[in-house]
Amino acid sequence: MTNPKFPKLLDYEALKAEYGETSPPSTIHSPSSENDSVDNENALSFSEEIPKKTGLTGSRLRSYAFAVLTRKEYSKAELIEKLALYAEHRDEVLLLVEELSERQYQSDQRVAEIVLSSQKRKGKGPNRIKMALKTKKIDTELIQEELKEIDWTEQAYQLKVKKFGMTVEKDPKIKAKQIRFLMYRGFEMDAIMKAISKKPNEYD
């Protein structure tokens, strides 16, 4: 039977304000956003050499693709859109990116692992990590094994302790607040309930 004191749906805007987060799930911070300012500056400097009307083709498009990839890792979908902004023909971009991917200059696998590491370090659970991958149009299956190997209950517990302390709360309102916080961070309900019920040194 559902406890009416625990909300069925999450109000992400309210949670963002409550927990001091600067970005809702739809704009999850990821490795690709960390260098946006630098990337924009580099893109501007490079664009001085880009024919604004004719666009890039051939060796110039290829050179620009390598310049982009030396600055940071891009998912295949991101790289296509990035190059298409300056290319003359989108079909040429598709062929080039496919070649770069086959030769491992571009790798969705590497990007997925970077996202996983970055999001986990920031205290995000599996659901938020999957959402971050989705925004980059990366298949979650690429890191499915890595996701399974992580003890998400322990991850949720450590985050709960950092935010609320080690006390196992009995007050339904406080428990509900902890549940909302961990759900917003992307943890599954099973891991959440175990985390907020875990006593110090339990299972150690």
Automatic annotation (TrEMBL):
GO BP term, pick one: regulation of DNA repair
Domain RecX third three-helical: 151-196
GO cellular component: cytoplasm
Subcellular compartments: Cytoplasm
InterPro entries: RecX_HTH_2nd (IPR053924), RecX_HTH_3rd (IPR053925), Regulatory_RecX (IPR003783), WH-like_DNA-bd_sf (IPR036388)
Keyword Cytoplasm listed: yes
Amino acid composition bias (Low complexity), ranges on this chain: 22-33
Keywords per UniProt: Cytoplasm
Domain RecX second three-helical positions: 107-145
Location (main, coarse): cytoplasm
Region annotation Disordered: where it falls in the sequence: 20-42
Protein family: Belongs to the RecX family.
Purpose: Modulates RecA activity.
Protein name per Swiss-Prot or TrEMBL: Regulatory protein RecX
